[in-house]
């Protein structure tokens, strides 16, 4: 009889250990998802050819508590009440940004954008005279950034919505994880 009680007691202890482990895993998953990393699905073609429609990626939600956004980073932000956008940081507070003759200028200096080379070539072949249409200088206010999609001919970005408040940032895109064949860093 004492063997039955010991065996029953061991099973209860084992069950309790599994319940605790599952509970801890759920709490950790909640903390990680809420404060550190989150999945994001690319919707649309505004970041082609860097990111593609329906790709899934991981967003680092903690990074902008530790540092400010930097030009060239791909970020996710709350653009509308129910919708997040993914774009590339072009300029930060205090910068002046403009486009003249298909050249991006930040603080009067040409910014090289090698990630646009393929798209610029395609636009020329399709008869588009400019890949990024001119816009006048825009001074970026404090606590804001200027963002644009890589697919400049098909992107609703700071050229239309204005500079984006840093407080609306969800985080920085780190890497794509789906489809599996497309796993890569987003930088």
From TrEMBL:
GO terms for molecular function: serine-type endopeptidase activity; signal peptidase activity. InterPro entries: LexA/Signal_pep-like_sf, Pept_S26A_signal_pept_1, Pept_S26A_signal_pept_1_CS, Pept_S26A_signal_pept_1_Ser-AS, Peptidase_S26. Its EC number is 3.4.21.89. GO terms for biological process: signal peptide processing. Signal peptide: none annotated. Pfam families: Peptidase_S26 (PF10502). This is Signal peptidase I.
